[in-house]
Specification:
The chain has 404 residues and is an alpha/beta fold. It has helices at 41-47, 87-97, 115-121, 168-175, 193-202, 216-224, 275-284, 335-346, 350-355, 359-364; strands spanning 12-16, 19-22, 25-27, 31-34, 37-38, 54-57, 62-65, 67-72, 74-75, 78-79, 103-111, 136-137, 140-143, 181-186, 206-209, 229-230, 263-266, 289-291, 304-308, 311-316, 319-322, 382-385, 391-396, 399-403. It starts with 11 loop residues before the first strand and ends with a strand.
Amino acid sequence: MPSNKSVSDAPITQFINCRILRDHCLQREDLWVRDGKILDPEKLFFDEHGYADKCVDCEGSIIAPGFIDVQINGGYGIDFSQACDDAGSGVSLVAKKILEHGVTSFCPTLVTSPPHVYHKVLPQVKVQDGGAHGAGVLGFHLEGPFISLEKKGAHPEQFLRTFSSGGFRDLMETYGGLDSVAMVTLAPELDGSQSVIRDLCQKGITVSLGHSVANMSQAEEAVQHGASFITHLFNAMLPFHHRDPGIVGLLTSDQVPAGRTVYYGMIADGIHTNPAALRIAHRAHPSGLVLVTDAITAMGLPPGRHTLGQLVIEIQGLHAYVAGTKTLSGSIATMDMCVRHFKHASGCSVEEALEAASLHPAQLLGLSHRKGNLDFGSDADLVLLDDTLNVKATFISGEEVWRK
């Protein structure tokens, strides 16, 4: 029988023998869940006289908020940037597979593509909650095509666009619509970009700066217009220079509006960024670091040739190159790998490593009122980990969706 008729008929689950990540530290407490939300046990005991219907023994595990990946291009043979009639099924396959890596929400990412790809793919995938079927979809991350020719990286040059028609009209002509879009990466030095940044932010879409040769003042202007993220810091941007730090300078800029945080993505796969650069960024601005996988279709597949949007990618060991070149093109890392590598390379605490994959991306997307933390009332999206940060089990809305 449900334990509490006065508030809800839903059963209550109690997670015991665990250390939970709350208020930036691991605490030896039980975690209580009902109706997919985290309960305040004091209110349950004293106001409702409730008790647990089900008990989960975590055997000393860490319980952290589920991981959130805001930049993932595909995996397991699926390329989100391919125009196909069943794009939704591809996203669903990846959503199911990444549960084993502790990811409970993600932003499917499209790299620079011709307009027909966006027009075909975007309407097929909707924002949806996660569950046994897979991680939740928070909306697309559109990385390009409004980026710098000089810093295009693995983005195909022939499909790059500028804001030649005045800005937002170019955006709509290219994408077709923004209904399921959570984030757009663009180069802030492009003419017309500042008004586009403002318009996107007014629509509740996160704007990220990346694949750019912007100087620091252009980057600061973009932030003042609402931009709040840096796409894979250090990669595909001007290197740090002491007279003009460029986009990297945003980490310590005094021109960021009061009360605002600039977040930045890091691909902590041991390949995209030297450990020393990772340490520099983290120590300069720890509260802004967001771990991303930037994973491509080859994640979870053997070495060989695969695709990324319109390009052929060659996997050599842990490196993903544009075929025939030494240009890096995303990663084959999983989020739990990135969390472990970040902790090892940076020397940060367990709590900091976990928050970089949960709290910070939730804050970036404006979702920290319900995701990215274990506060009372938040979604019970959880990952159970051992002391070496290997994933043991994943829960969405308090229900187990994967176990090792």
